[in-house]
Amino acid sequence: VTASLAAIIFTAGVISGSLGALLGLGGGVFLVPFLNLVLGFPFTAAAAISLTTVIATSSSVSAGRAGKQLINMKLGMLLEVATAGGSFLGGITAQLIAQSVLQQLFGLVAAIVAVIMLTRLRRRNVILDPAADPGVLGGRYYEDESRTTVTYRVKRLPVAVGASFIAGNVSSLLGIGGGIIKVPLMNLAMGVPLKVATATSNMMIGITAAASAIIYLIRGGIDPYVAGPTVIGVFIGATAGTRIAHRINVGYLRLLFVVVLLVTAFQMFQRVLR
Amino acid sequence: VTGFDRVAARRSQQVSAERVAGRLLIVVTYLSVALLAVGLVLMLANGISPLDAAPPLDLTTVVSQLASLDPAAFLWIGLLTVIAAPIGRVIVSGINYSRADDRLMVAVSIGILLVIAVGVGTALTVSV
User: Fold this and answer.
1) Strand locations in A43-180 (E)
2) Is the pLDDT of residue A232 over 90?
3) What is residue B53's DSSP assignment?
4) Closest residue to A210, CB basis, from B22, B83, B128
5) Which among B14, B26, B39 is the nearest to A228, CB-wise?
6) Phi then psi for A210, rounded to 5 degrees?
7) B82 CA: distance to closest CA in chain A (Å)
8) CB–CB contact B19 A62 (8 Å)
9) Cβ contacts of B52 on chain A, cutoff 8 Å
10) Distance of CA A242 to CAs A70, A146, A162, A258, B30, Å?
């Protein structure tokens, strides 16, 4: 039983790690329901373990993408400050707006974003000229699909900083990972290519999760006997996901993200109805 | 030397600095996974189930327990390394931005570290 249970937890980690790495979500959105509903771990214990796996996904993706310029460190860190600030001030919002209203709002926004993403499945947000000026926050990377170095520019930074603040605030209140907001924000609003958006989001969620994981660790909320096999599985899954991501058509990736967005929107509406 | 050349040189300097930070992250990540893998093997060899109650983290003894091949010690150190990796990356990036005299990004790096520090401070001082 001991070895098979460890193997089940490990496999769940592999699956959530690969999906998390592909979509820039960290994998918690898949792992928490599994640990909580299938294996019967308390929600807070599942969330604490999930946080460590989100960091593992983030580090694995960041390590796998090192030197490929898919992670926009500057943009990620700028948005991270706003996200962390928003998350930190979550308590104030909780007093101003009822959680059910926030859930409805989030569900509605997630559904709208999913529809917008569906209408832009073929948009790549890149300039095929590698000599084009990327601006202060933009960048260049080698795109496998076009087999050339492409350039991208970053638009609407002030709007994105404000939205990141709200994303951090709302995600801390609703217990959802920030990636589900950050990826569409960077891709749709800021004109960042989806692969750069997912890689940058993965880097950002690692920092956010580390800040929260320390708190859980200090308060004794992390179980090493469960977290150990899960993190190893997530690392292997995320490493595989990072390698697969190069070969997957960006349209399919976007479609997969739309499905996750719609499922999350559905879950939010379901929580309100409970 | 034109302004465009300076921007290009600065960008290239940042790319190589990011590469160094990325390599460091690779080393730390693989180290943490290796520690966790040893812990998992020891855990299974000792017949410990993931559902068993784990000993709490004790920073004063955890390193010395590695010598006695305590599975929990390997798992704890591995998890601490996992959690430290992204924070370490922010610190390394902050140092790189400081070397490149990019004051905005140095302030951003410090801002992120401050938010983490405030969170840890709150967790240490506020009882649940």
Assistant:
1) 139-143, 148-152
2) yes
3) P
4) B83
5) B39
6) -60, -40
7) 6
8) no
9) 225
10) 11, 18, 29, 19, 15
Higher pLDDT residue, B33 or A21?
A: B33
Residue whose entry in the numeric block shows the structure tokens 């240490």: B124
Quick one: tokens of A129? 């000229």
Identify residue A79 by its one-letter amino acid code: L
- Residue B26: predicted pLDDT: 84
d(CA B84, CA A196): 24
Out of B56, B82, B118, the one facing A220 most closely (by C-beta) is: B56
How many Å separate Cα A216 from the centre of its chain? 20
Query: Cβ separation of B54 and A206 shorter than 8 Å?
Result: no
ipTM over 0.95? The verdict is: no
Q: Rounded mean pLDDT of A152-179?
A: 81
Distance between CA B10 and CA B18 in Å, rounded? 12
Q: Which residues of A touch B19 (CB under 8 A)?
A: 66-67
A213 interaction partners in chain B (CB closer than 8 Å): 83
For the record, the structure tokens of B5 come out as: 């050349």
The residue behind tokens 């709007």 is: A159
Q: What is the mean pLDDT of residues A199-203?
A: 86
